[in-house]
Amino acid sequence: MSEEREVSRRRFFRWGATAAAVVGVMGHAAAWTRSLVANVRYEPPKRRTLGAPDQFPKGRTFLSDEKLFIVRDKLGLRALSAVCSHLGCTVGTSKAGYHCPCHGSRFAADGANLEGPAPRPLVWYALSIAGSGALIVDLGKEVAADTALELPRRGS
Ligand code: FES
């Protein structure tokens, strides 16, 4: 009887030690797997609030923080990247379009690359209006040059 009881006790401790080891290994595996996923994203959000649409007059408005031109013309409002497609310098405006001060690339008013080493046109981004009425640019969504945000006419 005593030997039987001893065996049962030994079995109990063996089972308990095995269960504790399995739980420990699974805990470490879960912690290791979780360590592969970043807690924080360091890249800025792609959708940015630019302010009230009324603050962008007819013509081109440069937003230095966003490196964007907001273009208001007969099509509506459009957002053009000011980042040169060559090596990323910030382009400036010229009479007919845009120019890059770094290596002399020139771009047409629609962003098409005309001269210089820039291999691609400037990028147009999607604009939308938030529920609050603020203008939103989505830097993750490229659109065609003639894609404009039409604003409702005042008084209608
Ligand atoms: S960075 Fe604009 S032309 Fe080189």
Question: Any descriptors?
Answer:
Rieske Iron-sulfur Protein; 6-stranded antiparallel sheet; 156 residues; alpha+beta; 4-stranded antiparallel sheet
Task: Report a brief summary of the structure.
The chain is of the alpha+beta class and 156 residues long. It contains one helix and ten strands. It starts with a helix and ends in a 13-residue tail after the last strand.
Written account of the structure:
The protein is of the alpha+beta class. It has 2 domains: 37 residues; 97 residues, Rieske [2Fe-2S] iron-sulphur domain (Rieske Iron-sulfur Protein), CATH 2.102.10. Helices cover 22% and strands 31% of the residues. FE2/S2 (inorganic) cluster binds next to loops.
Give the secondary structure arrangement, pairings included.
Elements: H1 2-35, E1 47-51, E2 59-63, E3 68-73, E4 76-81, E5 92-93, E6 97-99, E7 106-108, E8 113-115, E9 124-129, E10 135-143
Antiparallel strand pairs: 1-10, 2-3, 3-4, 4-9, 5-6, 6-7, 7-8, 9-10
This protein binds FE2/S2 (inorganic) cluster.
Helix count equals 1
Count of domain modules: 2
CATH superfamily of the largest domain: Rieske [2Fe-2S] iron-sulphur domain
The quaternary structure here is single chain
Structural class: alpha+beta
The CATH topology of the largest domain is given as Rieske Iron-sulfur Protein
Strand order of the largest sheet: 1-10-9-4-3-2
Number of strands: 10
Order of helices and strands: HEEEEEEEEEE
The major β-sheet equals: 6 strands, antiparallel
Uncertain segments are none
Bound ligands, each once: FE2/S2 (inorganic) cluster
- Give the overall shape: elongated
